[in-house]
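Hey, resending since the last one bounced:
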Amino acid sequence: MRVGLSFFLIRVFSARLLLENNGMIENPFIGSVQSDDFALEVLQRSDSIPVLVDFWADWCNPCKMLMPILDKLALEYQGKFFIAKIDTESEKELSATYGIRSLPTVKIFRHGQVVDEFMGVLPEPQIKEIIDRHVAHPADAEIDKADQLAGEGDIDQAISVLKKARVENPNYPKLSLSLAAHQLKANDPHSASEALSDLPLNTAYEAEIKRMRAQVNLALRLGTEVDLTVVENKVNADPHNLDARLGWGQALLQSEDSVDDGVEVLIEVIQRARESAQAEEARETLVQLFGSLNPADSRVSSYRRQLARALH
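The structure tokens again:
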């Protein structure tokens, strides 16, 4: 009797394991999504929590290997994110829209936009690391507190709050990004550069990190604020002085209101002497400026065209 019961339990456990490996155990945090409910189940839901969209196919063995890992993590995180499964065989239009070229591909949506992705079967700890970059984190409250303090004009206290939170949460990238942003606002690009020094480039915030690094590097290149009238007078006194014109263009970039003018001056430096050291410095400054701006900023494409014309 005892042998028979043991054999029965083994059969039940094996059957459950087989179901789990095929994604058939009920999981309230996973759902199949089609094109007609994609807007609701993915785009709208991602306003509240991250949505991991798993693009898969029945013939894809790696997809079947990934499924139980995602299923386990979804249960472990208890609703901090949702997994939307999309069968690429029946949803070819959705697959084409999001440029799916290999399976499995998992794209993470937040506020209706793709903010991260990974392809293939990654180890569970690596997948968790990616997920942790997007789910709610206890330190987010400290970031909000720092933003509020900075908005009230107390940027020193904001930086203090973030530094303390960073000690307690050293592996949370958003803290370092927030700290660097506030230090940059406090005209301390050296400290901002240090805050970013431990961040790997291959994180979920790669684009944001690159942009922040470019902003910091641009601030380091431009140096401290100078009197625009003084440098402009130097240019007017000697229009052929490329060093003075370069300094004027870089000084103009320090104010948001005069960025267009600064770009124009730096472009002129390049046009006046393309092979000069000043022209190369102007080009590098412009490249850092492009990287520091949001890619969606309409000025970026305009500035790039101006630079391309100046170089050819």
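Confidence is low (pLDDT under 50) at residues 1-24.

Sorry for the duplicate.
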